[in-house]
């Protein structure tokens, strides 16, 4: 299949392809998505095929406006109203009890459907012109880092999908926060672009983290969180600990010329001139949102540089730091090492 590379002014072509049941990658504010008509089981099946995605991993349905929620959700909890009002359009995905008409494949057989209204003008216009909600996972091959620009989508999916709508680089850089409001307590199933602190402020009560995210031996409630994900080709290890300088010293001891180093600005300044390895500087430690924006692209750069091993400095788990660390730990396949003075 020849994949079309579409410019923003060719959006009507993208919308037509979607109406015909084809797959189109499009920009959102978080990462690029791979869209298909959510009402068409056949179109949605194509997504799993193109990405090599396991069929037990449900998709997020993207809508253009609040009114479309009723077509998909059987019930809307009052707290969902609050969060939609405050954070949509934006990087927040909410679970709702699904209507029977939503194809089973979209929800991987679950009773819930995940919905979000993305905050990207091209995404919203595309959904509007297509006239249907779009089921859309991130537009990467399953297991690869999510795409933060059209070129990344091309690397992974050229020849497998009908078109890519190029909207330039994305803003947030990590995926949406997935929140479940259907249990007794609000719970984050996947940390993302909207922070736990922001959610708690609006809901006025604590928001839990799925225990599986904290390393408990439980099955994550968001099926996608159980896979090694976002992974670069080289093995990655995250170094964490109470003392920053100890983390840097460990990197100094272990790095070789073909080690990739994912560092804060502070870490890079400490190691500059005396540590071998390929430096990739994400951001200053107090700007996790900037680091999140650059993470996936950095992982792809490491792949291209052909490093044999990647050492990553941990970030404080506050604000966007929670999502950043979750993605780093996934990329590491759980390889997080604490360095402490004995
Ligand atoms: O920012 C985003 O959310 C991006 C852009 C394209 O919108 N999309 C995205 O989709 O990250 P995907 O498929 O890569 O991740 C969707 C996550 C998975 O972890 C999946 O298991 C979870 O959402 N999910 C979807 N439906 C669910 C449901 N009904 N119950 C629990 N988890 C669900
Ligand atoms: Mg994904």
Keywords:
342 residues, alpha/beta, DHBP synthase, Rossmann fold, eleven-stranded mixed sheet, 16 strands, 19% strand, globular, binds threonylcarbamoyladenylate, binds magnesium ion, transferase, ATP-binding, nucleotide-binding, double-stranded RNA binding
Describe the secondary-structure layout:
Elements: E1 4-6, H1 11-19, E2 24-26, E3 33-37, H2 41-51, E4 60-62, H3 69-72, H4 78-87, E5 92-97, H5 104-107, E6 112-116, H6 121-130, E7 134-135, H7 150-157, E8 163-165, E9 177-180, E10 187-190, H8 196-203, E11 208-209, E12 236-240, H9 244-254, E13 259-264, H10 265-271, E14 278-283, H11 288-305, E15 309-313, H12 321-331, E16 336-338
Parallel strand pairs: 1-8, 2-8, 4-6, 5-9, 10-11, 12-15, 12-16, 13-14, 13-15
Antiparallel strand pairs: 2-3, 3-7, 4-7, 5-6, 9-10
Helix pairs in contact: 1-6, 11-12
The protein binds threonylcarbamoyladenylate (TXA) and magnesium ion.
Binding site for ATP: 53, 57, 112, 138, 146, 190, 230
GO biological process, one term: tRNA processing
Enzyme class: transferase
Tell me about this structure:
With 342 residues, the protein is an alpha/beta fold. It folds into 2 domains: 4-214, DHBP synthase, CATH 3.90.870.10; 236-338, Rossmann fold. It is 32% helix and 19% strand. It contains 12 helices and 16 strands. It has helices at residues 11-19, 41-51, 69-72, 78-87, 104-107, 121-130, 150-157, 196-203, 244-254, 265-271, 288-305, 321-331; strands at 4-6, 24-26, 33-37, 60-62, 92-97, 112-116, 134-135, 163-165, 177-180, 187-190, 208-209, 236-240, 259-264, 278-283, 309-313, 336-338. The strands form 2 sheets. Strands 1-8-2-3-7-4-6-5-9-10-11 form an 11-stranded mixed sheet, sandwiched between helices. Strands 14-13-15-12-16 form a 5-stranded parallel sheet. β10, α8 and β11 form a beta-alpha-beta unit. α1 packs across α6 and α11 runs parallel beside α12 (321-331). The longest helix is centred in the last third of the chain and has 18 residues, at 288-305. It is globular and about 60 Å long. The chain starts with a strand and ends with a strand. The model has no long low-confidence stretch (mean pLDDT 96). It binds threonylcarbamoyladenylate (TXA) and magnesium ion. Threonylcarbamoyladenylate (TXA) binds at residues 28, 30-31, 33, 57-60, 91, 93, 95, 107, 110, 112-114, 118, 136-138, 175-176, 178, 189-190, 221-225. Magnesium ion binds at residues 137-138, 146.
